[in-house]
Write a structure and sequence with these properties.
The complex is a heterodimer of chains A (300) and B (311).
Chain A (H helix, E strand, L loop, with lengths): L1 H7 L3 H40 L5 H6 L3 E2 L6 E2 L2 H32 L1 H14 L5 H19 L7 H25 L3 H9 L4 H30 L2 H7 L16 H8 L8 H30 L3
Antiparallel strand pairs in A: 1-2
Helix pairs in contact in A: 2-12, 4-5, 4-7, 4-9, 5-7, 6-7, 6-10, 7-9, 7-10, 8-9, 9-12, 10-11, 11-12
Chain B lengths: L1 H45 L5 E7 L4 H14 L3 E8 L1 H9 L5 E4 L3 H4 L2 H5 L1 E15 L7 E2 L1 H8 L17 E4 L5 H11 L10 E2 L3 H10 L3 E6 L8 E2 L1 E2 L6 H5 L6 E9 L4 H11 L1 H4 L2 H4 L3 E2 L6 E2 L5 E2 L1
Parallel strand pairs in B: 1-2, 1-3, 5-10, 6-7, 6-8
Antiparallel strand pairs in B: 3-11, 4-8, 4-9, 4-11, 4-12, 13-14
The chains are: A mainly alpha (300), B alpha/beta (311).
Chain lengths: 300, 311
């Protein structure tokens, strides 16, 4: 009896089930479509430098000279690669200790004040437009470095300092979440054995959450790697490998934004910029891959 | 098993859709523009008043001038909508030659950027002249540089101000990127040759940043459009000639360039009216002067794409 009634009326939970299913499927389809068309666009543009314009791939990756307007045009992207890596890794080196300390403070030492005030303030940093960071870097950090160190002030060091502030929210937030999700039993066990608070943090909390902390660092580096505007304003943009941290150099992103609008779509100069973009995208894939590896190693 | 199958189907679907999507977009984009122009023509013939929509895109240096003039033009001709976009000279020239924009704004001659066959169909409308001055940090005590000295500085042969009569101070070059129209003009008319980027030189793509860096960095040298000159930077003479509106107009100061507005073939009625308006006294003696450009009408000399000067 109950069964026949159920069959005659449309079952609301089944309808809900289907609405949900179709909705999620459409969203995923749209997402995949966007991602694949982006990848396809950048790849087809970037590869045409090598396929249509016959630029040597090995020369592109290891060449030291970038002068797209000379005769013959030279496309050596190594200075940009070195610039990008050194700037973002140096930024992570500066930001990681700060981020970890902030996370430890917010979860272990003063959870109430930290969670309520510190975390929103640090997350606020993520909402500031990058042009503001760039301008602050150009007006404060560059003159400061120019006075203290030999050189022009602009360069990898200035870029790294600006980027370190920009990636601080990423590293701090991920570290805080990781530390907060640590089972209370671990810490209590440590205290029960007579360890002090610092011993517990240093010997138990940090080692256990290390993979998650590393994930934060890698995501921070990925963010720094892709940042264009702020870096472009303080790095100097000369396509050379610098002799010091305070000499003008370029990153992949700054080279792209500097010339993209002034080159004609389809020309060899423009295609070479898309090749840089492709390189940037491949590097981001590598970073994502590293994060996945770290997550798999996580003990939590 | 079922999941893998679903995933494969999803992927295949995505790829086919992505492929279609790409083509459709390109198609609809082109259609949109042609429709726009057609509508403009149709409207124009129906009544005497002008109507249609104009898309002007390209040079960011020229953008503020065109933008301001277009607002006034739209007030006077309510049937016309003009959209002014940036993107750079290269983008503007490419879009107008492909028919995606009605007007392509450019700092350089189309022949210098595009392939010969692409540039052939474009009609040049020169709306203003921009003068470019060599600027240095205010503490540099040099007032004049010759062409050869400039070449030696920008190619890195001279690296200290004392070699050209200044103090013992290292020279910092603040350059524009190789693709920039301002740099092309400076290299062509001030240096007479293309120079490679010197190690340690700075490159910035906005005039504001160039000015800030030249003004603050000791021993810095760069070049700026006349519109950006003020007491924060020191303007140098070129071969003994002062950089000013008069010296550009009478042809004694050679470092200047036209601001171009290109159309593909002859423009339609609305676009032509707007270009005429750009050359009218109202704009030439008003907005053009206000924004630091030199009116085309004031020029006593003319220059063609090869750089030949005629009176």
């Amino acid at each position: 009896m109950a069964q026949s009634v159920g069959k005659q009326q449309p079952k609301p939970h089944l309808r809900e089930e289907w609405v949900g299913r179709v909705y999620t499927f459409l969203c995923i389809l749209f997402l995949l479509l966007t991602i694949f068309s982006m990848v396809y666009f950048v790849a087809s543009k970037g590869l045409s430098t090598f396929i249509i314009n016959k630029v040597n791939l090995a020369g592109f990756l290891t060449g030291l000279k970038w002068s797209p307007d000379s005769e013959p045009p030279l496309f050596g992207a190594l200075p940009f690669l070195i610039g990008s890596f050194s700037t973002s890794i140096l930024a992570a080196v500066i930001a990681a200790p700060l981020g970890f300390c902030a996370a430890v403070f917010m979860t272990q030492i003063m959870p109430k004040f930290g969670r309520k005030i510190m975390q929103p303030v640090i997350e606020l940093l993520a909402g500031i437009p990058s042009v503001v960071y760039g301008f602050v870097g150009l007006s404060v950090i560059v003159p400061l470095f120019r006075d203290i160190f030999p050189g022009q002030g602009i360069g990898i060091a200035a870029g790294a300092v600006v980027l370190s502030i920009m990636i601080l929210p990423t590293i701090t937030t991920i570290a805080t979440d990781a530390l907060a999700s640590l089972p209370a039993g671990l810490k209590e066990g440590s205290y029960a054995l007579g360890a002090t608070r610092w011993q517990t943090i240093y010997r138990i909390v940090l080692p256990t959450t290390m993979p998650a902390l590393l994930t934060g660092i890698v995501l921070g580096i990925a963010r720094a790697f892709g940042e264009a505007l702020a870096v472009q304003m303080v790095i100097g943009n000369s396509p050379h490998i610098p002799r010091s941290l305070f000499e003008s150099t370029s990153t992949l992103t700054s080279a792209i934004t500097l010339s993209m609008g002034n080159t004609v779509m389809g020309s060899i100069q423009n295609n070479a910029l898309w090749s840089l973009a492709l390189l940037l995208m491949i590097m981001t894939f590598v970073f994502v891959f590293i994060v996945r590896m770290l997550e798999r190693r996580s003990k939590l | 098993m079922k999941k893998t199958l679903m995933l494969i189907i999803a992927l295949v679907l995505t790829f086919t859709l992505a492929a279609c999507g790409g083509k459709n977009n390109a198609g609809s984009g082109a259609n949109g523009t042609t429709n726009g122009t057609n509508a403009g023509n149709g409207g124009g013939s129906a009544d005497a008043g002008l109507s249609g929509s104009i898309l002007a895109t390209g040079s960011t240096a020229l953008q503020p001038l065109v933008d301001q003039a277009s607002k006034r033009f739209m007030e006077q001709n309510s049937g016309v909508t003009i959209q002014v976009q940036g993107g750079g000279s290269g983008t503007g020239l490419a879009q107008v030659s492909q028919g995606q924009a009605n007007i392509g704004n450019s700092d350089v001659f189309a022949e210098e950027k595009l392939e010969a066959d692409q540039a052939k169909g474009l009609v040049d409308h020169q709306v203003a002249v921009v003068g470019i001055a060599t600027v240095v940090n205010p503490e540099v005590n040099v007032d004049n540089l010759t062409k050869q000295q400039l070449i030696d500085i920008f190619s890195g042969k001279i690296a200290n101000w004392k070699e050209v009569g200044g103090n013992d101070q290292n020279i910092t070059i603040v350059n524009r990127p190789a693709s920039s129209g301002t740099r092309a003009t400076f290299e062509k008319y001030a240096l007479g040759e293309k120079v490679a980027d010197v190690k340690g030189s700075i490159q910035e793509d906005s005039s504001g940043t160039v000015k800030k860096l030249v003004g603050e960095t000791p021993g810095a040298i760069g070049y700026l459009g006349f519109a950006y000159l003020d007491d924060k930077v020191k303007v140098l003479k070129y071969e003994g000639v002062e950089a000013s509106e008069e010296t550009v107009a009478n042809g004694t100061y050679p470092v200047w360039a036209y601001e171009h507005m290109y159309t593909k073939g002859e423009p339609d009625a609305a676009t032509k009216a707007f270009l005429d308006y750009m050359l009218s006294d109202e704009v030439q003696n008003g907005d053009v002067v206000d924004m630091g450009y030199i009116p085309v009408s004031k020029m006593q000399v003319k220059r063609d794409v090869e750089g030949n000067i005629s009176k």
